[in-house]
Amino acid sequence: MKNKKNFLLHFVGIKGVGMTALAILARQAGFPVTGSDTEGYFITDEPLKKAGIRVFSTFDEQHVKSAQLVIATGAHGGFGNPEVVAAKANGIAVWSQGEAVGKFMDGTLLTKEPFFGISVAGTHGKTTTTSMIATLFTKLMLDPSYVIGTSHIASLPGPGHFGKGKYFIAEADEYVTEPNLDKSAKMLWQHPQIAVVTSVEFDHPDVYENISSVIDAFTQFVGNLPSSGLLVACGDDENVRSILPRVSCEVKTYGYSPRNDFVITRVFISSHQTFFWVKGMGTNLGEFHINVPGEHNALNSLATTIVGLEVGQDIEHIKKALLHYAGAKRRMEYIGQLRSGTKLYDDYAHHPTEISKTLRAFRHMYPRGRIVCIFQPHTFSRTQKLFDQFVGSFSDADDVILLDIFASAREKHTDEISSMHLGQSMKRVHKSVMYHKSLGEAASYLQDQELSDKDIIVTMGAGDVYQLHNILLKR
Questions:
Q1: How far apart are CA 255 and CA 268, in angstroms?
Q2: Has domain 1-95 been given CATH number 3.30.470.10?
Q3: Is 171 a catalytic residue?
């Protein structure tokens, strides 16, 4: 496009992490960008300000009058948002967030030719793995474009970037395009040359009926790969394996099981680092070292390595580049410490499997310390459908504090399920579980505890539980 400077892109719901990444990429590509969202603090405020993007704190049809393209999130009323309605009424093109990612990857607006697309999908691990691949390609001087669903990655300048290279790396979200209008998964808009699938589990019960419907969505996604493409799949996951027979391109599996093409034969976690050894395709790839803890992060690094090898990068260069990855916002993120020396961490985990794996990694980091986990369940539907799994997910925490369920704007409050119900069931299998109604209550309780420099406080959830740290650090 020749006249980017006169082609205004307006983002409705710009403060969502995925929307922020897209907006930053578009701004770097040379487009004027504005956005709108609700008032209040968002973790994306800083990157949006840094990018020089004007953000309106209300939704008003006047905001789209000068726009040539409106990109809308499924939140805030979706395509029923007054700005979207006004845009359509005035003949202004409207794309969903998922559609925008797919069209940017295809080269629409940004370039004359399609990018070499690399998409990362999975119920768990997609943000971290996308961040790792973007870090790898950046450190190897490939200058990729990328959009990642978080607000900050320590090893990258931001969650979105428009590069000069041919690669476009994107997180591929399995949630639906627009809950009230388009039930297809957002990831189906992407048509990459390489796809990574880290895991497939039942989640998002507000839009998926059962695990079969989730598997169907991922099957459709990998069906977007060309016959010349590559699927990098975690073969330890039986649900992932179930989609492999329906793939028409080359497949490379990875995991801990020896039946995979790339196998982690040994793993050692030391404080904030992970060391692991890999055999792949009949070759001993040797020792890897990453500066984030956890067996799950060894898997994410291996998927990243396979992608790097596929595009012709040297294994030793890949290993060195992986050392630069130091985590992403709200992924085992270190926040600070209290006067007692107690460390504060935050994590986005809101699914039972994520909680269990993350707490296991923290236990490796602090084998003798007390782990206090403050968990804020996310959505009534998820809490209800995965209730039994949540009950058994906190075995590596010494103490669990439950906050009220953080409800989605799309669902109605129900008395059928609550954090108190969850706590009552958890007490049957866990020695220390309690409920606090607010962040302030939880903070007051924690201040009365005798915690040392060997102990940690971990907030978990996809809501606003991370704000607890601000309260603790100010008191």
A1: 15
A2: no
A3: yes
